[in-house]
Amino acid sequence: MKEVIRKNILDLPYSLHDARVSKITLEEKKIILYFSEGFYEPRNNDYLAVEGKGIISIEGSDLDFCTVYLFDSVGNSGQFSGEKYRLDAFIHEFPHMDFEIIDETYGYNQSKFSGYFYEGDKMKECTVDIYHFGNMKYIVEKYVK
Questions:
Q1: Which of 135, 117, 119, 134 is closest to 21 using CA atoms?
Q2: What DSSP line would sit under the chain, residue for residue?
Q3: What local confidence, expressed as pLDDT, does residue 12 receive?
Q4: C-alpha R_g of the chain
Q5: pTM of the shown model
Q6: pLDDT recorded at residue 144
Q7: Sign of the C-alpha dihedral, residues 88, 65, 27, 136?
C-alpha cells in the first residue's frame, strides 16, 4: 500500500489573522486588498505587527469564480440566512469596508478568507473566495528587520 503525505503549509510570510480589510479593488486580472492596520509577521514563535498599512495583490484572478458570502447571524449553530455576491458586485456595494479576517485558507488556485464584516453597529460573518492562477504578493508600507 502506498502512502502519500500532503504537508501542512506552515511557511506563510505573514499571518492575516485579526487583520482588517478596509477596501478591495479590481485592476486588470488582479484583486487588491487594502489593510488599514497591516498584518502580522511570524517571528520567533510570536507574531509582530507590520508597521503601517499593508496591501495584498492577487494576480491572475478569474472573477467568474470569485464570491463573497455574507451571513446575517454570528456564531450561532443551526439555520442561517445571508447573501451570496459576485466579488465585483460586493466591491460595488461596499467600496469601503471593515472586514476582520479570522481564518485564511489556501488551496489549488484558491485563497479563502473568513471572519467578521462590520456594517455600522451590525456584525456579520463573511467569507471571501478568490479563484486565481497567479501569485499572491504582500506589500508592506514599512518593513522592520
A1: 117
A2: -----PPP----SSB-TT-EEEEEEEETTEEEEEETT--EEEETTEEEEPEEEEEEEEESB-GGG-EEEEESSSS--S---EEEEEHHHHHHH-SS-EEEEEEEEEETTEEEEEEEEEETTEEEEEEEEEEBSS-EEEEEEE---
A3: 85
A4: 16
A5: 0.89
A6: 58
A7: positive
State the amino acid at position 105 in one-letter form: T
Say how far residue 59 (Cα) sits from the centre of its chain. Answer: 14
Q: What is the largest CA-CA distance in the chain?
A: 56
> 50 and 41 in contact (C-beta within 8 Å)?
yes
- In whole angstroms, give the CA distance from residue 33 to residue 43: 23
pLDDT at 130: 98
Name residues of the chain where pLDDT drops below 50: none
Percentage of the chain surpassing pLDDT 90? 65
Q: One-letter amino acid identity for 3? A: E
